[in-house]
């Protein structure tokens, strides 16, 4: 289980930027951009949580804090009761993170990339081979395992990145827009993989703009708007609050009404 409580993150703006201030966003103040002002949610074992929000809402900033790539200014991130803000090394061991900008080593093959990260996490010998083979099979990677990563298609790269992110069997999996830019077949493989993680009991948090994916996969959603989590609940509660069975419509109502407050 992962619990996120009162996360905040601001970024210092350059003097130049502050002088020529044109932004209407209330998060820009005192020489800082307050990307995440107050975000809280939790995701239990075997639950899939969809992180929703308009462009610029603060989803990626939040997920980067969960991955320990960014340190929050305040707030707590508890995995199995331990605060990974205070213990980021522990966080890196227990979280598997796929970001939109994760890079692969272009000169290494898909297989070599995944094995390299497996070794970084301490896997070796038969355990490494078995874990990698299972992932290659599950993510349908066998046809391109020996190709250099710089020659892979977008979908092949994404599968390799996902394998790399979960090779150490993390307690919690966090995926930032995992299906963006993928064709229908590859997207299906990724969604099936998320469902399998859930069946194995792993909490999965993923950000997306595709509410059809949320409908198919998510047990609950958290909506972030302008750096603040304004809704957390299951899909029934989401539809009720948005007064619409159609998730896109419900989402737009929730955002509109949050912004009117
Ligand atoms: N290093 C930074 N310095 C200044 N502002 C930043 C920085 N990183 C993010 N931001 C700002 O914080 C806000 C939230 O960005 P974030 O990438 O978290 O949004 P998002 O919800 O993931 O958006 P999208 O759906 O478009 O990916 C944006 O306005 C962004 O410009």
Automatic annotation (TrEMBL):
SMART domains: AAA. Keywords: ATP-binding, Nodulation, Nucleotide-binding, Transport. One of its GO terms (molecular function) is ATP binding. It holds the Pfam family ABC_tran. It comes from the Bacteria. Residues 2-251 form the ABC transporter domain. Belongs to the ABC transporter superfamily. PANTHER family: ABC TRANSPORTER ATP-BINDING PROTEIN (PTHR42711), ABC TRANSPORTER ATP-BINDING PROTEIN NATA (PTHR42711:SF5). This is ATP-binding cassette domain-containing protein. The lineage of its organism: Bacteria, Pseudomonadati, Pseudomonadota, Gammaproteobacteria, Alteromonadales.
């Amino acid at each position: 289980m992962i619990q996120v409580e009162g996360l905040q993150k601001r970024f210092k703006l350059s003097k130049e930027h502050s002088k020529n201030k044109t932004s209407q966003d209330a998060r820009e103040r005192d020489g800082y951009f307050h990307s995440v002002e107050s975000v809280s949610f939790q995701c239990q074992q075997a639950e899939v949580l969809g992180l929703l929000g308009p462009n610029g809402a603060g989803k990626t900033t939040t997920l980067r804090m969960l991955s320990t790539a960014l340190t929050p200014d305040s707030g707590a991130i508890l995995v199995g009761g331990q605060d990974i803000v205070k213990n980021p090394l522990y966080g890196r061991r227990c979280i598997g993170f796929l970001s939109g900008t994760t890079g692969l080593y272009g000169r290494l093959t898909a297989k070599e990339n995944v094995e390299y990260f497996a070794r970084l996490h301490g896997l070796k010998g038969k355990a490494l081979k078995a874990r990698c083979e299972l992932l290659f099979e599950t993510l349908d990677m066998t046809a391109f395992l020996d190709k250099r990563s710089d020659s892979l298609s977008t979908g092949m790269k994404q599968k390799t990145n996902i394998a790399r992110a979960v090779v150490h069997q993390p307690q919690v999996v966090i995926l930032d827009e995992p299906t963006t830019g993928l064709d229908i077949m590859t997207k299906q493989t990724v969604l099936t993989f998320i469902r399998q993680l859930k069946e194995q009991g792993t909490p999965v948090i993923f950000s997306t703009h595709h509410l059809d994916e949320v409908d198919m996969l998510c047990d609950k959603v958290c909506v972030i708007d302008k750096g603040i989590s304004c809704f957390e609940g299951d899909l029934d509660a989401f539809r009720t609050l948005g007064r619409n069975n159609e998730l896109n419509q419900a989402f737009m109502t929730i955002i509109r009404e949050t912004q009117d407050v």
